[in-house]
Amino acid sequence: MEPPVLIVQWWHLILAWWDSLDPNARLFAWMAGGIVMLVMWVWLTYRVLRRVAGHRKLRGAWYNDAQYRELMQLIHEDQQSGRRVLSHEEIAALRKYRYGDAVKDIMRRKGTGYFD
């Protein structure tokens, strides 16, 4: 089975472009690509290691298990007392913490909430 003609044509165009570069431009392209891949690898590794360590992210910050339990307790107390209006992210995290994945929103993000 042969690859489609369009893919072969694009491949030939890319190779012709690469051959048209001088050695310094090729080195720069390799270095730039390597830096981009390194940044992506570091970002992905950071996220995976945080998850493996049991950390959870809420409101842009990472919390370990004990801190997350305290935060959920504070959010639950705020919700019960009515001290402030909770964001969708906080409400979703509190529901997931208290009920797991058993409870689903009926009208998620349909303009029915305070921040929609």
Q: In words, what does this structure look like?
A:
- The chain has 116 residues and is mainly α.
- It has four helices and two strands.
- The mean pLDDT is 85.
Keywords:
two-stranded antiparallel sheet, 4 helices, mainly alpha
In brief, what are we looking at here?
By secondary structure, the protein is mainly alpha-helical.
Low-confidence stretches: none
Class of secondary structure makeup? mainly alpha
Strand order of the largest sheet: 1-2
How many alpha or pi helices? 4
Major sheet, described briefly?
Answer: 2 strands, antiparallel
Number of strands: 2
Give the SSE map.
Elements: H1 5-20, H2 23-52, E1 56-58, E2 61-63, H3 65-81, H4 88-99
Antiparallel strand pairs: 1-2
